[in-house]
Amino acid sequence: MSNALAISAVSAVLQYWLTQVFGNSPALSSVIVSAKAPDILQTEIQAAGPQMRMNVFLHQVTHNAAWRNAELPSLAADGSTQLSSPPLALDLHYLMTAYGTEDWEAEALLGYAVLMLHDNPVLARADIATALQNLPPAQSLSTALTTTGLADQIEMIKVTPEILGREEMAWIWSALKADYRPSYAFLVSLVIIKSPAMTLSALPVLQRHISAQPGLGTGLPTLTAVIPPNGQPAAQLGDTVTVSGAALANPSTVLLTNARLGISQTLPAAAGSSEASIQFTVPNPALPPPQPDPADLPAGMYSLSATFSVAGQPTVSNSVPMSISATIDASWAPGTLTHGSKVTVSVPCVPYLRPGQGVSLLIGGQQAPADPFTTPTRSPSFTFATLQSTDGAAVPVRLRVDGVDSPILDLTSATASFTGPVVTVA
Length: 426
What we know:
The chain is α+β, with helices and mostly antiparallel strands. Helix content is 17%, strand content 34%. The protein folds into 3 domains: 6-193, no CATH class; 222-324, Immunoglobulins (Immunoglobulin-like, Sandwich); 328-425, Sandwich (Immunoglobulin-like). It is built from 7 helices and 26 strands. The termini are far apart.
């Protein structure tokens, strides 16, 4: 594979061999071969006076379609861990232009140059190495280009003609803001650049343990659903949660992960688990304020997985979603609030709310976001731009954190009933 200087190396190789072609022709030995933008070259020619010039200009770089998706995925399932460094495969589009001052000079230059490309549709590895070893030492990149690896990349460098219509040619020269000269367009394919970025490689396998399980099932632990107690849609701190599935005997730990908040906590599985379910308890530590770095699990959405021992080897199950809700403290009982503009309401709650979480308070159907806070808090305040009267009716109050609402219903009986805090807005 080549490094990032491979594109420059291709231009240098073309420039070197064109120089050799003209140097071997007595009539054209004074030709100067360059690799510059035509507008810059035109300015140089006007300043230097009449001279024969051949210029190779890279006017476009495109991805090679055949190689672009040839590699395996380069990132792990987390979307950030670099597993491999896929190559960057590029096609280079060149414009070769002849500059002459006498009759037939430009045509002669172009004839020699096109014939050289025609006779060498594939740039041999030895020719590339020779060109890079003999670049003019005065050029700042001459030494660096010898280490590009261009001659050793897996694909050979191929040169093919490229047809540009009159409109495309006119557009290119108009964009260059230079006078048109006889030109020949060609394609160099392909340059494969390998990134030096650090990657993660798997460790070698020391032992292989393969076993067959009878039946139609996989025999591997499989989680299907998280079941909070009392029929609630979300668990609360201190709840014993049941996880259903198959082949769940002998669990060791449960892992809760909240990628957005950067939280990953391992909890012990409770005793008495069965093939069809496991249980664990959501910790509820006593954390009086203030807590600059609280240890309780914040409310929000989690990914839950469990670790088991299968055939003597630790095995991690699949992941299922789980939500933890905030709870409004039972001591909060304002009874009646006054309607109006810019009404501020403070609510005590657990767990601690972290800065950056989406927190809002819902009084009936009226919702207000939390006032900004920069440290973890258990007493957020909310300012309602306009808090409207509930016409004497008591309405439930919910605390919504990262899309998960605090519980307000008793779902243990056939008929649901409100159990959460209620207020009246008068």
